[in-house]
């Protein structure tokens, strides 16, 4: 159990990023952490990557640098399956929580927890982006390449982002987390187009495979607190993992969730079963030799990722959807992350033609 | 370095401290030596008043085979083993590509001669085309500990890194056990059998030794009517079924229902890979107009048979 907040063992600041207000804010909020100014970030990354567990080593360091490319990008999703037209803001990379299944272990070249401090560029890019898309409702969030809230006591990003988005009505902004780091959000007023979302899993999966994350009960409690304050909340059962007793395991969490959080406050629940590129399996085997999650009946999907054989996925989804619907959650919008049209039809009785239709389904229903 | 003409029996070949190549073809070198003699002298150095070979094992062994009594050699005056080894390393690096096993020997020796792990990773792994991480370094060190019989097979079969990496995850005893199984198979099937074996073992918490010693596998292995290839392939298929029980059950059910339709062998009905897509495909072959019409007629007949469509209805339910 880690209600305790994350602090890195060392902060590295790229020399060119010293003068930014966000750099000063981070240094103030983590004043006890040793700091080193670096000129060559590539060399620093190469040195960390030498380590036997460079992914674990990277989590101990915080790198302050600038995003010299685009902050806002379409969620990469996956080819041949239905996406949801989500957009991601790359403001932070990597995550202090060490989940067995985490795709970032395979996806990102830089293992260090990284904060981009050129936020003025971010606001400008966001304004341009939202203006260009002013005729549609966009779903956008920060929790794809990192945990939205894990560093919030250091960066206070949540306050800045919520203040920015509350005025941009054509965007639904989502903070996605496994933490209970909600103090900053509790200090500000809710807005209809802000959703704070939690990744949930069964208690057993969370305990065994989400090292460093607060227990699921605490996440639900944090969601309850925010929903009582008037915030809309979301939940992502992703990745859903098969194990002995999974039906009861997920049923138990759904039960507690819908006991504690009013269904009317829930903006959406997404479902996604465990899937990963074959390369991640090698990393998981090395970093988590005792895990069993990769030894299930996985097949190579149309996108080249390993995913449960379809009848197993159908069974997972049907059970969890059934649990949600049975327990006061009849009206909560449920959608899939990276699933096929067939799965949508056979479980939710919907057949979205494409990601635009999914976007419309998720965003228009509840705003 | 000075060059001298040295009687070949003065080279103490039992000292293999600098040797990195064990498996190599000699035919071309023998042919070249016969034609033009030894042009490029090997490198030797003195240890305990004896000449030992630093570089040029292939050449010296080939000269021995041809009963050449004396050869020109460079004498390296370097007492430090690490520095001497670096000479052979850079000498070879410029001249040729190293095999996976040679790379593992190089790394093992660098470590043995006192180079620090992190230095090896930073300096040498990139030169050898290996990602500069300690994880890769460790893996190559395990390759260097494989028994000579296994190394010989790896060399002969030109096993790729991914298969060696899998083998490195097995303990030495398990490697001995799987050796006869992978020996007759090609690269892809070797990798499959190793992966499936490890998968079944991890999933069910049964040691690999116990799986291979199980009655069903032993029945295959002791069978007198099966060749080595057939045995290995049968075990491979058995493991595959254990890894994908639901998929094989479904596939068998589909195949069996299809068989009942008694389609001519020229018409094939296939699901998508792993039934992942809803689509099925029908293909047929024909030699002439008459056969073409016959197939179309059969397909038209199928169009009226409800049993045929039952095949595709909720196959996964």
Structural class of chain A, please? alpha/beta
Number of separate structural domains of chain A = 1
The largest pleated sheet of chain A is described as: 8 strands, mixed
Beta percentage of chain B is 5-15%
Helical percent range of chain B? 55-70%
CATH class of the domain at 1-96 in chain B: Alpha Beta
How are the strands of the largest sheet of chain B arranged?
1-4-2-3
Unreliable parts of chain B: none
Low-confidence stretches of chain A: none
Helical percent range of chain A? 25-40%
| CATH third-tier fold name of the domain at 1-96 in chain B | Conserved hypothetical protein from pyrococcus furiosus pfu- 392566-001, ParB domain
Backbone CA Rg of chain B: 29 Å
Q: Return the CATH architecture of chain A.
A: Alpha-Beta Horseshoe
Instruction: Name the biggest interface.
Output: A-B, 24 and 26 residues
Q: Figure out the total of helices of chain B.
A: 16
Question: What is the H level of CATH, i.e. the homologous superfamily of the domain at 1-96 in chain B?
Answer: Conserved hypothetical protein from pyrococcus furiosus pfu- 392566-001, ParB domain
Lateral arrangement of strands in the main beta sheet of chain A: 4-5-9-10-11-13-14-18
Task: Chart the SSEs and their pairings.
The complex is a heterodimer of chains A (367) and B (317).
Chain A: E1 10-14, H1 21-29, E2 35-38, H2 41-49, H3 54-59, E3 61-65, E4 72-74, E5 86-89, E6 92-93, E7 98-99, H4 104-107, E8 113-116, H5 119-132, E9 138-141, H6 152-155, H7 157-165, E10 171-177, H8 183-186, E11 194-200, H9 203-209, E12 210-211, H10 216-228, E13 232-240, H11 246-260, E14 266-273, E15 275-276, H12 278-287, E16 298-300, E17 306-308, H13 310-326, E18 334-336, H14 341-348, H15 355-366
Parallel strand pairs in A: 1-2, 1-3, 3-8, 5-9, 9-10, 10-11, 11-13, 13-14, 14-18
Antiparallel strand pairs in A: 4-5, 6-8, 7-12, 15-17, 16-17
Helix pairs in contact in A: 10-11, 11-13, 13-14
Chain B: E1 2-7, H1 27-36, E2 43-47, E3 50-55, H2 57-65, E4 70-76, H3 81-95, H4 100-112, H5 117-127, H6 134-145, H7 148-157, H8 161-168, H9 172-182, H10 187-204, H11 208-212, H12 215-222, H13 228-243, H14 245-260, E5 267-271, E6 280-284, H15 289-303, H16 306-310
Parallel strand pairs in B: 2-4
Antiparallel strand pairs in B: 1-4, 2-3, 5-6
Helix pairs in contact in B: 4-6, 8-10, 10-13
């Amino acid at each position: 159990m880690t209600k305790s907040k994350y602090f890195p063992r060392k902060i590295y600041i790229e020399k060119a990023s010293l003068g930014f207000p966000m750099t000063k804010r981070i240094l103030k909020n983590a004043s006890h952490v040793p700091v080193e100014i670096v000129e060559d970030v590539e060399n620093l990354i190469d040195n960390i990557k030498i380590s036997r567990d460079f992914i674990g080593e990277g989590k101990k360091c915080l790198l302050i640098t600038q995003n010299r490319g685009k902050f806002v990008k379409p969620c990469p999703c996956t080819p041949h399956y239905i996406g949801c037209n989500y957009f991601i803001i790359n403001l932070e990379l990597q995550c202090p929580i060490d989940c067995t299944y985490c795709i970032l272990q395979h996806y990102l070249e830089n293992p260090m927890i990284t904060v981009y401090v050129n936020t003025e560029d971010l606001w400008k890019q966001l304004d341009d982006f939202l203006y260009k898309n002013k005729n549609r409702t966009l779903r956008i969030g920060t929790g794809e390449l990192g945990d939205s809230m894990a560093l919030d006591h250091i960066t206070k990003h949540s306050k800045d982002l919520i203040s920015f988005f509350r005025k941009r009505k054509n965007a639904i902004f989502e903070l996605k987390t496994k933490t209970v780091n909600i103090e900053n959000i509790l200090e500000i007023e809710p807005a209809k187009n802000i959703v704070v979302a939690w990744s949930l899993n069964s208690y057993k999966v969370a305990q065994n495979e989400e090292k460093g994350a607060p227990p699921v009960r605490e996440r639900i409690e944090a969601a309850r607190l925010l929903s009582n304050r008037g915030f809309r909340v979301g939940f992502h059962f992703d990745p859903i993992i098969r194990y002995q007793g999974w039906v009861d395991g997920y049923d138990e969490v759904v039960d507690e969730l819908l006991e504690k959080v009013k269904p009317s406050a829930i903006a959406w629940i997404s479902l996604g079963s465990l899937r990963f590129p074959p390369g991640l399996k090698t990393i998981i085997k090395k970093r988590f030799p005792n895990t069993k999650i990769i030894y299930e009946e996985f097949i190579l999907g149309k996108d080249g990722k390993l995913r449960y054989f379809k009848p197993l996925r159908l069974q997972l989804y049907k059970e969890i959807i059934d649990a949600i619907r049975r327990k006061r959650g009849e009206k909560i919008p449920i959608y899939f992350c990276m699933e096929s049209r067939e799965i949508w039809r056979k479980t939710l009785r919907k057949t979205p033609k494409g990601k635009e239709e999914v976007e419309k389904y998720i965003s228009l229903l509840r705003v | 370095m000075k060059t001298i003409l040295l009687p070949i029996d003065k080279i103490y070949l039992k000292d293999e401290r600098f040797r990195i190549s064990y498996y190599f073809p000699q035919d071309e070198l023998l042919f070249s030596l016969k034609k033009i003699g030894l042009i490029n002298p090997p490198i030797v150095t003195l240890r305990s008043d004896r000449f030992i070979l630093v570089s040029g094992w292939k050449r010296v062994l080939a000269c021995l085979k041809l009963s050449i009594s004396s050869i020109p050699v460079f004498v390296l005056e370097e007492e430090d083993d690490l520095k001497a080894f670096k000479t052979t390393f850079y000498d070879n690096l410029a001249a040729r590509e190293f095999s996976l096993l040679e790379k593992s020997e190089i790394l093992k020796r660098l470590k043995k001669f006192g180079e620090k792990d992190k230095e090896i990773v930073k300096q040498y792994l990139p030169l050898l085309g290996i990602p500069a991480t300690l994880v890769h370094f460790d893996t190559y060190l395990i390759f260097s500990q494989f028994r000579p019989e296994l190394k010989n097979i790896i060399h002969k079969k030109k096993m790729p890194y991914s298969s060696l990496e899998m083998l490195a995850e097995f303990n030495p005893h398990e490697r001995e056990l799987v050796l006869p199984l992978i020996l007759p198979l090609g690269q892809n099937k070797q990798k499959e059998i190793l992966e499936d074996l490890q998968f079944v073992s991890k999933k069910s918490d049964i040691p690999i030794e116990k799986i291979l010693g199980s009655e069903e596998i032993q029945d295959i292995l002791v069978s007198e009517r099966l060749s080595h290839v057939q045995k290995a392939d049968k075990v491979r298929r058995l493991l595959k079924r254990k890894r994908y029980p639901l998929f094989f059950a479904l596939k068998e059910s589909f195949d069996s229902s299809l068989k009942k339709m008694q389609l001519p062998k020229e018409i094939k009905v296939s699901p998508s890979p792993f039934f992942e897509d809803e689509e099925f495909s029908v293909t047929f072959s024909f030699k002439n107009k008459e056969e073409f019409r016959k197939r179309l007629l059969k397909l038209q007949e199928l169009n009226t048979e409800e049993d045929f469509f039952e095949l595709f209805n909720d196959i996964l339910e």
